[in-house]
Every structure is written in C-alpha cells, then in structure tokens.
Amino acid sequence: MRGYVLVGGASSRFGRDKADELVDGLPMAERVARAMEAAGLDVRFVGKRARWRPTVIEHGERHPLRGVLAALLDAASSGEDWAVVAPCDLPHVPADAFARLMAHGDAAVLGAERRHPLSGIFPVGWADRAARVLDTAGSVRSFAEPAATVVVPEAWLVNVNRPEQLR
User: Fold this and answer.
1) For residues 93 and 21, which has the higher predicted lDDT (pLDDT)?
2) Which of 32, 94, 136, 156 is deepest in the core (most CB within 10 A)?
3) What is the mean pLDDT of residues 12-16?
C-alpha cells in the first residue's frame, strides 16, 4: 500500500516552506515519510513541483484536496485499492497512527478532539468524489465526511502552522 505526504501547501502562515523545517534534525516532511515507511507503506510525496523523491505532481489551483486527488489517481494507476495520506506538518505523528488507519478496513481519518481530514486512508474510487468536491469549491472536510474516525492521542496530531509552534 502507498502512503502520500502532502507537500504542496503554500505555507503562508509559516512564512517559508514548512516541509523543509527541521524538527529534531529532520525536515517535517521526512519525519512523516519515515513514520509511514515504518508502518509498511511505500511512500511518495505530493506537491506542485518535484523537490522530494519520488514526487507525484498535483495540478490545478492550490487547494488541499488537489494533493489527495493526485494521490488517489497515482495509487489507482499503480493498481492499489487504497491510499494513505497525511500533510507534512504533523511532525509528531508515529507509525502507529498509520498502522491503525490501515487496520481499520474502511475509509477513515485520524482524529482526537477534532477530525483531521487530510490524514486518512481512502479508497482510490474516491478520486471521483474528490474531483466533484473540487468542482463545487467544496472543502476537505466535506470530502472526508463519510469516512470513519480513528481516534489517536491529540499529541500525535499537532500540526505546525507557524514557526513559534516549534519552540
């Protein structure tokens, strides 16, 4: 099964590309990738340009769901039935989070006090759903609404949007 680290965001609140930001000596994107690999996933990065290897290129106007759509299409073209996705700004997510998603057996997102719709496992057939949501200017939350929630500790899901959150 493939895992996809989303690195295509604008990082506007961060002020620079947060995928490259070091946390304990590793770029945030690499930390997420390593957690996915430790869970047994074959990892790809998804973004607007090929900075990370291997990268799946997302197309169209910037929207968080574009990366998910690109991941689902890539997984489908590779003969996969599922895609596990997560944004690069979850530097504390462990392999166990991805293992729990894969063990769930159906579409699911990670959640604690709130759901994280960009951190989940989705069937490749949901590519059509993602395209429809994008066509109607819908949200990632509306895309992931039918997915179950796999509850994990809140500390695993602290996403970093500003540099001061790393201090």
Assistant:
1) 93
2) 32
3) 54
Residue 100 carries which side chain, given as an amino acid letter? R
Which amino acid appears at position 43 of this protein? V
The answer to whether the Cα torsion of 32, 93, 132, 141 is positive or negative is negative
d(CA 49, CA 30): 16
Residue with tokens 């998804």: 46
> What is the average per-residue pLDDT within 139-159?
94
Rounded Cα gap, residues 41 and 16, in angstroms: 28
> What distance in Å separates the CA atoms of residue 143 and residue 63, rounded to the nearest whole number?
12
Q: Can you name the CATH fold of 2-166?
A: Spore Coat Polysaccharide Biosynthesis Protein SpsA; Chain A (3.90.550)
**pLDDT on residue 83:** 98
Q: State both tokens at 147.
A: 């997915």
Among the listed residues 39, 138, 146, the one whose alpha carbon sits nearest the alpha carbon of residue 97: 39
Q: Coil, helix or strand for 116?
A: strand
Beta bridge partners of 150: 110
